[in-house]
Request: fold
Amino acid sequence: MLIKEKLPPLFNFDALPEPTYTGNGLTDQDVISVSQFDTERLDYIFSRAGEMRELVERVGSTDLLRGRVLACLFYEPSTRTSASFISAMERLGGGVIPITQGVQFSSVSKGETLADTIRTLEQFSDVIVLRHPTVGSAQVAADYAAIPVINAGDGPGEHPTQALLDLFTIKEELGRINGLKIAMVGDLRYGRTVHSLTRLLTQYDVSLRFVSPEILRLPLTIMNQVIDAGIDVRETHDVADVIKNADVLYVTRVQKERFTDLAQYEEVKNHYEITPELMAIAKQDMVVMHPLPRVGEIHYAVDDDPRAAYFRQVRNGMYIRMALLAAVLGKA
Amino acid sequence: MLIKEKLPPLFNFDALPEPTYTGNGLTDQDVISVSQFDTERLDYIFSRAGEMRELVERVGSTDLLRGRVLACLFYEPSTRTSASFISAMERLGGGVIPITQGVQFSSVSKGETLADTIRTLEQFSDVIVLRHPTVGSAQVAADYAAIPVINAGDGPGEHPTQALLDLFTIKEELGRINGLKIAMVGDLRYGRTVHSLTRLLTQYDVSLRFVSPEILRLPLTIMNQVIDAGIDVRETHDVADVIKNADVLYVTRVQKERFTDLAQYEEVKNHYEITPELMAIAKQDMVVMHPLPRVGEIHYAVDDDPRAAYFRQVRNGMYIRMALLAAVLGKA
Amino acid sequence: MLIKEKLPPLFNFDALPEPTYTGNGLTDQDVISVSQFDTERLDYIFSRAGEMRELVERVGSTDLLRGRVLACLFYEPSTRTSASFISAMERLGGGVIPITQGVQFSSVSKGETLADTIRTLEQFSDVIVLRHPTVGSAQVAADYAAIPVINAGDGPGEHPTQALLDLFTIKEELGRINGLKIAMVGDLRYGRTVHSLTRLLTQYDVSLRFVSPEILRLPLTIMNQVIDAGIDVRETHDVADVIKNADVLYVTRVQKERFTDLAQYEEVKNHYEITPELMAIAKQDMVVMHPLPRVGEIHYAVDDDPRAAYFRQVRNGMYIRMALLAAVLGKA
Reply:
């Protein structure tokens, strides 16, 4: 039996809160590249991320993004990154559409262009986080979407939220960025986290040390950016050369697959493993970082060392993503 | 150390809100087929969907379905439909159990009957949305479930929420349904969205034009329903025949796989592609719709035409599903 | 344009609720094994689970765990168990990170140790529910995590929340546990639910009957625990031997794969199927339980019998998990 008379209205909008927006320079913006972040904007995001930490530690969550929905679209699985964004959005009181596994088998992607998939998902959501294997895909998505797109990794391209959380971790752990001696260790050629973090660091007064096998040295273009920025920089083949003076040791994996000559791999790999013995000669107030996952390049015995910052680094990712989500949605 | 004395109660139910229910003819009902929707009920759902649009545009979400949980059970992936339902439920303040990928590998489905899976999930949830590859499965689920089941596509059977959002889109775009000239284009034989929408339209005073290759003509049974309803109807092989007078162009894909003679496919396919040239001779206040995903049957240059309604159509799906969820849960 | 002056704070913590914690003996504890549960703790959890039932039936959900996030990490799919935990957490007002499908393909697990995955996820969440194919993995996870870990099945090891919900169901259905005659039927050798429930029951004054084919008899170690507890116990090969006197019939599946001699399987299988004929000679106030999924070992015609408790048993799982989540997070 249907109601025949005029329906009484379901919602009384006078009683519902009206959203208010404030300017932060990121409202309604996409987050595609670290090149969008000058030191002023970095200060802003780090300040907000600090507030998010306090929020989570004190009460766990807020209603700040109530009524907002995040579409979390991962064309390749990354549990760490997607879990970080999902938790960030939930702690901000927003909703999540998790499309984090098997998207490659779905009718949305089967024969459908990325542009159409994005324009479909933006109908349901207020912000899209995209992980895609192709360089430039995040920018394509942003070009088509009317809502903010956050790049959560576009293949060998960029992964800006990782670089932000890396830099935030340095600042949180050591209280400053300027004046630090930072060593990057491992695969400096292919590691996009190293490239992005290095580009952010060229805006600061730091010393950089790059430690890698010969075939995995930092690419020319990024090395030249470092030199052009007037940074004190040096390359070496052995982590032992830098361990004594480093304030930060940013470790990445030297992948066996990169070597055509396995004998060469076996010969060099021990020069890049962080052991308790190496830590014994490092400074007492330095930090060891790693984007994770690790597969042996930091010895498990190092985990209990208070200087091992890699799990705190993971947590900082949640705070940075909370700050970014709030910022692009005009709520921070 | 366990508490030994009598436990103080965890909840003070006097302080908790008691749910209130109102009648709308859909409370506690399943949504299985378009045949459940007469014009009165359609008016009701479209009215509520309009309120949902206003809610989302003004504040994003509500607490209307707080305390209610949706089990979203997809035996085959459909990111568009599942994302639409998930966002709908979250914007209504309810919870979601997303079982949208890989359900075919799970212990729930391995050897377990659909009836048992449904009777399991209804223990955790208040409404079930089911996508299943088998015709009739939604009715089977509804027969076993004590809670409402919404059919999100049962193979070649029905997909009623798609038909509702299609019709709602026509009404929202053009302000009315009666008096319109509506052309369906493409695969009219296998396209279930065409069949369901056509069946809904037979309740209105419309003109219908069916444009398809000979081998993909509308099935006899549906054509006869149209004729029996006294609808002004005509079939043709070329979209150019109908483009000038159409108020609505509902486009679906002509799939190569349907042709045994590929030469025949190559010969006909251009007659069904919507191009800017075709749009140039169409009415200024007509709309182009498509259930998506599209693979070339609407030229990308048409996307910027204000008459291209297919992404707005996607968004309407969220409003319709919000209205349906609220209705079957007795909250609208 | 970035804000240059000092940022106004985003949150006023004075206005936000401070969490309060009360002792229940489970706060901040892991739930790994049934051996953690003495009768006092069982009484406590069952009491809280009863309150959760009332909550769900009356209003659906609460804010009790607002601000808390559950990481639901399933290395093998189990829709029933993961859906139960997800619904439990959502009804408690908390957030969920669902990692329930395809985790084996993700970068988190690829080459990463379980310890590292756990220490990563605990950065985002307040409690971890783990399903893993390897015995002992839940304890490993608990050893590394600073937050509570709940074992949702570690291969042939334990599945304590299943045993708790089984025992809770007996108590809810029959009003007591002491004095009951409980028969376990089917695969008693490999069925971990039978082992765990049996171990819990040795704390009560019950009679136990074990009904199985010879090759699927209860393992020696568990049988000895039963005998040592002074329980009235007996083994038999035919359910007909126990049906008349049983207060509880706990049925599990006799799997064809367990038999090397298929003729032997065909010969015995009918002795373990629960039929309406068998039910006709059972007590009027007995209950039939099953951990599900079933594949024929309980005839579908039994489903309408009010003594068929297996779907109510599923629902009890949600209440038990709500009680456990609230307890380990210090909120019950």
In short: The beta strands of chain C are 69-74, 95-99, 127-132, 149-154, 181-185, 207-211, 232-236, 248-251, 287-289.
